[in-house]
Amino acid sequence: MTKGKRNQIIGAIMAILLVLGALGFGLIKLQYDKLKVLADKKHEADGKLQVMEAAVKNAEQLEAVVSEVSRTLAEKESTMASGDLYSWSIDTMKQFKTGYKVEIPQFGPISQQSEVNLLPRFPYKQATLNVGGKAYYHDLGRFITDFENNFPYMRVVNLSLDQDPSPAGGDREKLLFKMDIITLVKPGNP
């Protein structure tokens, strides 16, 4: 074989190797990259499938939880303000204050039902009642604390305290108080 022929054969072999290498790195590598992307998507879809299967398995448990929460909500709503809001509020206050040394002789008018201004799109309405009376500082504090704890759907706001200007029998420690009581109104109440 002549030197020129040998160089041509070596050149042809090198060209074939270069073309095969280019195909391997160009086309085949792209296919491997696409396969890797598909494998990642399959892995992600398998993870979502496992989450959904777990949710299906826990459906009965979730239904039980929803049922319990719905029952608790209905129980709480049964004690919410309904009907004549003014008389309901006064009766509730009078019944609750029997165990406390708090005098509440002043009940102002109750406001019209309005949207709850604390939370947007809240499903309940609210009404506000103005009350006033006399009490010792600690008795009033205990009364308000217990009241808000016993009625989680009612809040005391705008509390103002003043010294009693006309103390009976020299009792200058009693305070005059005024406060607004905001109560949530049971849904469907006119």
Concise structural overview:
This protein has 190 residues and is α+β, with helices and mostly antiparallel strands. The chain is rod-shaped.
Q: Measured on Cα atoms, how large is the radius of gyration? A: 39 Å
Shape: rod-shaped
**Secondary-structure element order, N to C:** HHHEEEHEE
Within CATH, the superfamily of the largest domain carries the name Ribosomal protein S6/Translation elongation factor EF1B
Number of domains: 2
How many individual β-strands? Answer: 5
What can be said about the biggest beta sheet?
A: 5 strands, antiparallel
As for the CATH topology of the largest domain, it is Alpha-Beta Plaits
Overall structural class, as computed from helix and strand content, comes to: alpha+beta
Helical fraction equals 40-55%
CATH class of the largest domain: Alpha Beta
CA distance, first residue to last residue = 110 Å
Low-pLDDT stretches: none
| Total of helices | 4
Mean pLDDT metric:
86
CATH architecture descriptor text of the largest domain: 2-Layer Sandwich
Task: For the structure shown, list the relevant keywords.
alpha+beta; 2 domains; five-stranded antiparallel β-sheet; 190 residues; rod-shaped; Alpha-Beta Plaits
